[in-house]
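Risk register update: the risk that structure generation would not scale has been downgraded. Supporting records follow, first protein first.
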Amino acid sequence: MDCRRSRTVFHADSVFPVFAYRLWKKNLLFSWKMSDRRSLSPLFAAVCDGVLKTGFGEGCVLVPVPPRAGKIRRRGWDQIDELCRYLRFFYGYKVLYLLRRLSTVQQKKLDRSHRLSGIGKAYTLSSKGRAFCDKKRMPAKVIVIDDGSKNNVIEDINKVKGAFIAGNQLQLIFGAGVVNDVYDVFAEYTHTQNMSLGELKEQSNKKQNPIQAVIKSLSDVFIGIMPALLAAALLMGITSVLGGMEVVKTHDTLYAINKLVSLAANGIFAILPMAVCYSAVKRFGGNPVLGMVVGAIMLDSSLANAYQAAQGAVDPEIIHLFGLKIEMVGFQGGIIIALMMGWVVAKLDNFFNRKIPDVIKLLVAPMLTVFISTVLLFTIVGPVGRVLSNGITDGLVWSTNHLGAFGYALFAGIQQIVVITGLHHIIGAVEAQLIASTGTNFLNPLMSVALMGQGGAVLGYLALNWKNVKARELCIPSFASTLFGISEPAIFGVNLRYRFPLIGGCIGGAVAGAYVYFSKLTALGFGTTALPGMAITNPANHGYINYIVAHVIALGIGFIATTVIGKMWTTVNKTGNSVKTEYEVETADEAKKAEVKDVVENIFYAPAEGEVKSISESSDQTFSKKILGDGVVIFPENGLVMSPCNAKVKLVYPTGHAVGLETEDGTVILIHCGIDTVNMNGEGFEVFVKEGQQVAVGDMLVKFDKELVESKGYSSEILVVFTEVPVGNDLKINEEIPADRAIAEIHK
């Protein structure tokens, strides 16, 4: 399993699976690889095309990894070579055979270390590969294709805003309205339709490492009490505004309303340790009522108030347990302690329920759990928790007093990078402790402006690539998500993917973080940012105005920094190489084509009698939109199909409805007879050539029964598609067909 989590190819930009070996897909892959189901090859070619087009765009060059000779002799065919041939002749990819197999040892019999150490001895460059390297003609985007399953990076596909690996979890970020549909299909195939969310989380948590488990647990604890915290924060904001108005102080009804609002706002904070302990016990699998009981003990009125004791206003009672001195002080504001006690109570509850006989379990187990928890609270957990919570709070307060604007800027600058790691979930506990200890939360606005900086970066990337339709489809909804406090689509779908927007967003967050410091902006709650975060903003020090200004700064600086860095990112470096946006590459390619000299190299003739029209007139959108390449459509008078040029037959489709040709200079032509005629399974089709055969202009390729095709409801049109034209050549489709029926010319 280690090989599935470790990087195995160090000189590749990325390694990712096209068709993951899991769930129902496992059966298809097994049938194809082990049972020699060649009929599945078109399926895998279609899947591969979709992944390549989405992940790498146009211009990919495919390099198949050659198998052992013994494997070919045993099976009679090479799966990867066949896959590449389908991709070449039906989807227009260029395939280069640059590798040669040296070793005859089966890789599956070797462990990971031996595979890696022997990789240099297993393969070498072919003669064509050496020629490419010698002449420095290696293409910019080379995709090496193998049938391995040891991949650890997955590229985005259509409808996916981002994808990343967190531990051993594959996390996908979908656009609005898509996630539920995807989950329904996923649940069907994984047979999890009837599992509750809690059951799914339990199964997932079993596979997390200890650090991930702790972070996720802290996040889950606060999810249950978050509505109460948000309500309290909002009410605190309202009462702060109302309390400063003279009319509220003098008007009985308004005063009463404000008083009730104040009581409602403070309610949750008065029992926050109890609520946290209850939620924590529930999260860790114990009886949550016992957590509530222990939480009530933490706040018992017979104990000295923790805030008053800290100020020296009261003298707490001292008791002695086996010589150990214990101060009877409450745990008001002890959020960290409540979290720790939640775990202790859950573990004790589960332990006693397993060990105590059923006859006395109902009475004895809860009693022992509560009593031992109370002892541990005052002897171990409480003192340790106080030191830990005070250290966290004091550390943060120290950073505000000593690091000043720099500390704020640093936190806001890197906070969204922390989001990538998943460690941001732990900050909720820190924020809760801050509110309990100081009454306000300065971290929330910092996290909010950090998020907004990434939103500005998305807009910056969009501005640089506005003419790119895919960029607009990706960036606009990603930015909209940031306005409502959701940064994952922006981070994983755009900024991290293209790298330089992430830098620009961090700069925007850092500058705005400094403004948060100077404006003394804080929050009265936590858990919500961006536009919804206005509700928990502390109105003191013109809080609402400063909140808006800070976010505008983050947005603007993020936008400006990204556009500036983006333009620098795409300029030519000292070696003459450049990193271009997708749109810039397309524009450059078009400009290059315009400069090609008009020298006729090859002429191609209509392969059948009948009316010749532009391929855009085809009834099939795949062909009419020129997805596979430019060409012509012929509405035939009969079913006789001849070669349009001198060429070599590279592919004959098993059903006989399509033939692939390659000229001496590398031009590849696909001749496709009928639309959807693959469904006829060869009925009515007769093939006169075989793969590898040389043909001349006018040689018979295929004969099909035109009337039979049409009687079955299929179109009989014949497509001539130029799926590959050598670099440096220009294809010209004749708009007006001359007397000799020349349909196209290659200009060099």
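Supporting record for the second protein:
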Amino acid sequence: MTVQDLGILLALLGASLVALLLVQVARREAAAVREQATQDVAEVREDVKRREAESRQRLEEARETERDVADQRRRAEAATERAEALVLDTEKRQREASDEMRRLRAQMLSQLEATAGISREEAGARLVDELREQALQDASTRVRRIEATARQHADERARRIVATSVQRLAVATSSQIAVVVLALPSEDMRGRIIGKEGRNIRTFEAVTGVNVILDGDSRSVQLSSFDPERRELAEVTMRLLMDDGRIQPQRIEAAYADAVAGASSRTVAAGHDAAVEAGVQRLSPELIESMGRLRLRTSYAQNVLRHSVETALIAAAMAAEVGADVDVARRSAFLHDIGKGFTGAATGSHARLGALLAERSGESSAVVNAIAAHHGEVDAQSVEAVLLQAADATSAARPGARHDDLDRYVDRMEQLEALVAGHPGVRRVLAMASGHEVRVVVEPSEVADSELDELATAIAAHIEKDLAYPGEIAITVVRELRAVATAG
């Protein structure tokens, strides 16, 4: 045997040993797996048995529960039957008790009616009347208490609102006076106004119908007249003359004619200025012109245009305090006396005429109603209309705003002029010097020079008969005949 064969033999022996070892290991692993499988099968069998036992127990419990439920259902049905029987019995007893109660009540009512001497209906009516009377008394007492409390709070707030509105008002006084004072631009202007032998001042008074007062040491000239239109025309005429510097009779008449011609533009300008001051916008031209005419109107010595501006400012302040419509309150208050600008041809109260004019000019229904209702002639339909009434009264009640002396004076002057103007041939009448002088201008074609004394005497006798006046009244009758020719 060679070495090579020996090596092969050894290799085969080694391989056999390795194979044997592997077989032994595999057998041990197989035995372990078999043992583990046996244990697992045993555990599964035990679990199955346990689950079967639990299922049998649960099934038994379910059957027991079902038997209990059936017993409870039978007991509930029996209880329901007993309850229904009890309800029927109770209802029967209640019906019997109700019948007995009605019988006893009827018997008692019969006995009460017999004892009281009145029927059930009469007793019920008396009880209702007593309860109603008591309720009315309680309600009336409570209402009076609430009204008293509300009135107290309302009065306090109203006073606060009026006080606040008046405190915020900062305008010039609206009281009207019968004198206009103009400053003289120079010392020699006094002599020019008087003229040679007083002809200029006499011409000025005759043309304008106002009294001219010039004190010797004064630096102003005063124009006095009860008629505001005459005062305005005289003021404009005097300003034109002082600006021009040439003062003589012909120039006075020309300046007066210019003043008369510019009256319309002054009216429109006054209306625009008042609207701007009151804060009122978008007024129609007709309303502007009508408001401008109020500058020549007075009510208890209060200038109506100034009063309208005051009332608009007060009403706007009040509306802002109470949360009302400020624009409606301001607008209606500014226009509330616009009806006073109408001439005597229009009929109706100034509130009605003003409302019609405002409606015709496209003002809102709230403004129209406030104007018509500001003297209570119609019912106020808005808070702004009530505020207008309060603002109107507040402006009129301001200290010094109104007094009736000037109105009585103006009425007396107008009566005097109307009485004298009724004589035939009279063209123009001017009451001057507070009614102590009357200048009468007659038509030259109707009254001759020889009739002037007779006319003056007749006028004096008429005044003595029909008018009551203090002191004396001087009547001056003027007959002026002019002839104008042009040469060249």
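The mean pLDDT is 83. On this basis the risk owner (M.S.) recommends closing the item.
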